[in-house]
TrEMBL record:
<dbReference type="Pfam" id="PF00296">
    <property type="entry name" value="Bac_luciferase"/>
</dbReference>
<dbReference type="InterPro" id="IPR011251">
    <property type="entry name" value="Luciferase-like_dom"/>
</dbReference>
<keyword id="KW-0503">Monooxygenase</keyword>
<keyword id="KW-0560">Oxidoreductase</keyword>
<dbReference type="InterPro" id="IPR036661">
    <property type="entry name" value="Luciferase-like_sf"/>
</dbReference>
<dbReference type="InterPro" id="IPR050766">
    <property type="entry name" value="Bact_Lucif_Oxidored"/>
</dbReference>
<dbReference type="GO" id="GO:0016491">
    <property type="term" value="F:oxidoreductase activity"/>
</dbReference>
<feature type="compositionally biased region" description="Basic and acidic residues">
    <location>
        <begin position="213"/>
        <end position="247"/>
    </location>
</feature>
<feature type="region of interest" description="Disordered">
    <location>
        <begin position="183"/>
        <end position="272"/>
    </location>
</feature>
<protein>
    <submittedName>
        <fullName>LLM class flavin-dependent oxidoreductase</fullName>
        <ecNumber>1.-.-.-</ecNumber>
    </submittedName>
</protein>
<feature type="domain" description="Luciferase-like">
    <location>
        <begin position="20"/>
        <end position="207"/>
    </location>
</feature>
Length: 309
């Protein structure tokens, strides 16, 4: 298993907010240049320690200061947002970050956050379900009915079938909710005492989950096939180069060295450089509907599928 390195920015206990926020961008830029996997933020309102009330604005700033690192909000309290506006904001952010943005959808655990936003604490589960359903439909290709009005959210996100999204939570109902919407479940910590109940509930919900429209499923399956073909092409190029190197080096001596340099100048380069060069042009994602999870090749660069070809 490859090692993951994450820079966490929660912005708590800030004496000088302007200095801290500028420092956060500089830290993210450093992490991006030194091989970190992701930079993560969080969301809370109104917190005595400050915390981070505008995670999407921070994520947009991070997208402008970085090029490779993933940007994740863990968690985004989606019941506090207007669903259509949130779909638009995330779609724009996904395009800005070129597929590097993702979030964990959470309900939160503080009633005061709902009171501050004018939302009913007792309706948080219903608000969560409504928002998730609207997000999935809004990021699709077709207009959809939203409270009696036909809505078509634009722009569409570059990540297909939709931006990287997880469902978080620690209750027994959280995993079935993720399965019902066909999204991966991301609990904040291990819950061995609830594993059997959570698994049973998730399996029941998976059988009745909200499936994407036929056009979205076709798009998803076609993207998966293109990804597999791209990986096969990379492997064929790598294997062919290895065979050519073996033939060149079998001769030995100065002639072999000259041939090796000529081979490198031909554009393939050393095996590791060749693989990295090719793989950076290949973004692999396959939506595995049977498990409702994203599957990414271990050799794929640290990004999800984006519309760039």
């Amino acid at each position: 298993m490859s090692q993951l390195t994450v820079l966490r920015l929660n912005m708590t206990n800030v004496a000088d907010p302007s200095t801290r926020h500028r420092a956060a961008l500089e830290m993210a830029e450093y992490a991006d240049g030194h091989g970190f996997t992701a930079v993560s933020g969080e969301e809370h309102h109104p917190a005595a320690t400050g915390w981070l009330p505008s995670p999407l604005i921070l994520a947009a700033a991070l997208a402008g200061r970085t090029r490779n690192v993933r940007i994740s909000i863990n968690a985004l309290i989606v019941p506090l947002y207007d669903p259509v506006r949130l779909a638009e904001d995330v779609a724009v952010l996904d395009n800005l970050a070129q597929g590097r943005f993702g979030f964990v959808a959470g309900m939160g655990y503080r009633p005061e956050e709902y009171h501050a936003a004018g939302r009913g604490w007792s309706r948080r589960a219903a608000l969560m379900d409504e928002c998730l359903g609207v997000l999935i439909q809004a990021w699709g290709d077709e207009p959809f009915d939203y409270r009696g009005t036909l809505v078509n959210v634009t722009p569409k996100p570059c990540t297909r079938p939709h931006p990287v999204s997880f469902v978080g939570g620690m209750t027994v109902a959280a995993a079935p909710r993720a399965a019902r919407f066909g999204l991966p479940f991301s609990p904040p910590m291990a819950m061995p005492d609830r594993r059997s109940r959570v698994s049973a509930g998730a399996e029941r919900a998976r059988q009745n989950r909200v499936r994407p429209p036929p056009r979205e499923r076709q798009h998803r399956d076609a993207a998966a096939r293109r990804s597999r073909r791209s990986l096969d092409a990379v492997r064929r190029v790598r294997d062919e180069r290895d065979r050519r190197i073996q033939r060149v080096e079998a001769g030995g001596g100065a002639a072999a060295q000259r041939n090796r340099r000529r081979l490198d100048r031909g554009g393939l380069g050393p095996p590791s450089a060749m693989a990295e060069k090719v793989l950076t042009r290949v973004s692999i994602s396959a939506w595995r509907s049977d498990r409702a999870a994203w599957s990414v090749s271990p050799r794929c660069p640290r990004r999800w599928s984006c519309g760039r070809r």
